[in-house]
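Hey L., structure's done. Input below.
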Amino acid sequence: MNDAVPEQHDLSRRSVLWSAGAAGAGLALGATPAVANEASAPEPPRQGGTMIGVPFQRRSAVRVALIGLGNRGGAMIDLYLAVPGVTVVALCDPVKAKAERAAAKVTAAGQPAPAVYVHGEHDYEQLLKRGDIDFAHVATPWDSHYEIAKSALLNGVHVGVECPIALQLDQLWDLVNLSERTRRHCMQLENCCYGRNEMRVLRMAHAGKFGDLLHGAGAYNHDLRGLMFDPAYYEGPWRRLWHTRLRGDLYPNHGFGPVANYMDLNRGDRAVSIVSVGSPSLGLAQYRAATMPAGDPSWKETYIESDRTISLVQTDKGRVIRLEHDVSTPHPYSRINSLGGTKGLFEDYPERIYIEPDHKNDEWGDFSKYAEWDHWLWKEHADPPGGHGGMDYMLVFRLMQCMRLGLVPDFDVYDAATWTSPVPLSNVSIKQRGMPQRIPDFTRGEWKKSRPGMDSEKPAEV
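Output:
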């Protein structure tokens, strides 16, 4: 079903550890001058044709592999099994029990038993060489995302990666180049872009309900202290250990992706610079002192990650996007999800709207009255299964639909690189006391052309 893969270039490989013990080894995020120089350098020449507007090859069924079957991957497999025309053919996780539980779900759904790869942290390489996989879903710890995505592309497999897709600018550029050379899509699986509110605001913004767009905001403000210190939740302390290695916005995609869609970034506008500042790092140490017994391994850790990172992204059109990250202090969950223009604004958590001429006297309006603006996905699937309010299912359903029907995906490798670039660039900006950092143009000038994104028309199922 897949067309031939072009000649695979011999690119260097780095070892990848899925466990947290050595997570981040060799990432060189502290090498501020090198990262800053790369950010300010001109874009490298394209090694293949653009992936903008490139459709999937049409197929009667989509053969899927899931790599990483912990909390996230173990839940996402249920959604792939719920979408018609999808077969789960292979599973991979170094923890055998997790792979076996996932395989049992596949057979319980009436599908053939999938191949299971459980022989160490690199067994995904054997999985990706099978030749019968159309799409790989990567849900492993962050430090392995880049290497697994790279391996998928080199083996001719379309790949979707949980956030963030990579951790360094050179890795982001490498994935862009590989996607272009291999003609395979490499996508950030940003589920928040498929939230009901996000998709409604997107359609309203494109219809001019907010006027000329001026500013937006997104965040990942989620109190994860209990989960990060829970040895049974994450496979090892890998997520907490990132707070010992990096100051910056570790997880910008949930907030950045939706606002980027509202503003058509990479589709007529683009993010050009970022400024970041960070608060002191106190929350995790205080939580540890209050909850963890003496002798716990966490007492050997020194936390440096800012409890709250705030970034300002400027676009080519002069718009401003505020990003926030805070998983270390007590607060209710919020992705902020705000959009403002010359006719009014929307703010989430709680959801409220104020636009002219609908509202007056400085009183918020009821956002539920704008259900007519819901995206067709939400009108067709009013009560979707799965977690996160149904957005996970929407992501899987739509991606699999695009692959079956031979459509262009809603977002691509250029969006993935843009939405993830605040990870390394916020680190540099904070180290330089809030100095602006240039965001590379991963599209190499193609952003100037308007094109469709997530505000899609319902396709004909033929």
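Residues 275 and 434 are 6 Å apart (CA to CA). The two ends are 18 Å apart (CA to CA).

-- N.
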